[in-house]
Design the sequence.
């Protein structure tokens, strides 16, 4: 039996699969980066497992996280989302998704890039390569770091919502900007190797 991070042990199959195949893998796909940012914001105050279980519902409800479409959502669409039992029906979080899509479009305009503005924005805070933390115990895992603090401030300045340092750090972990797999986890070395190739 393979050793996994403590939070991915004794969990539903979909959550174990997420840990084994996605979490910590360096992400340079803007579409996926945006999806993860919205889902991390939806998680605030809840468990990631709860949100991940609703990911397919979110994809359907939010037009597969099409940034241009979400940025144009009007009040009738927002009210419809608030009635959707398949997602987290929190008004602030739903409105934040629309605000974040609009902020991303502005970021693209400023950066004069349509495909990598968000990923470039994130990766500059780790100098383009994942931070290898080499954590041995769950007690060693931090909720925030100086990098997440700075990135959070920059995202807020750029108009994004639900991007506090704790949410941002969780996003950095998920998107592979930091390798927080415990060293005892079978994924640690594989994810480390991915980062070293960048």
Sequence:
């Amino acid at each position: 039996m393979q050793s996994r991070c403590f939070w991915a042990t004794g969990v539903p199959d979909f959550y174990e699969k997420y840990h084994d195949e996605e979490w910590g893998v360096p992400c340079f796909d803007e579409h996926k980066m945006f999806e993860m940012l919205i889902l991390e914001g939806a998680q605030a105050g809840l468990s990631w497992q709860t949100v991940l279980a609703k990911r397919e519902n979110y994809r359907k409800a939010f037009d597969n996280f099409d940034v241009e479409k979400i940025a144009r959502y009007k009040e009738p669409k927002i009210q419809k989302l608030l009635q959707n039992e398949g997602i987290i029906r929190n008004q602030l979080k739903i409105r934040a998704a629309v605000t974040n899509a609009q902020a991303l479009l502005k970021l693209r305009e400023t950066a004069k890039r349509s495909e990598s503005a968000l990923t470039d924005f994130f990766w500059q805070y780790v100098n383009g390569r994942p931070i290898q933390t080499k954590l041995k115990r769950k007690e060693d895992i931090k909720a925030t770091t100086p990098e997440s603090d700075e990135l959070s401030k920059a995202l807020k300045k750029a108009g994004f919502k639900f991007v506090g340092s704790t949410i941002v750090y969780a996003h950095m972990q998920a998107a592979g900007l930091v390798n927080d797999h415990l060293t005892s986890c079978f994924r640690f070395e594989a994810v480390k190797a991915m980062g070293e190739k960048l």
Q: What stands out?
A: The first helix runs from residue 13 to 21. The beta strands are 131-132, 178-179. The chain has a mean pLDDT of 95.
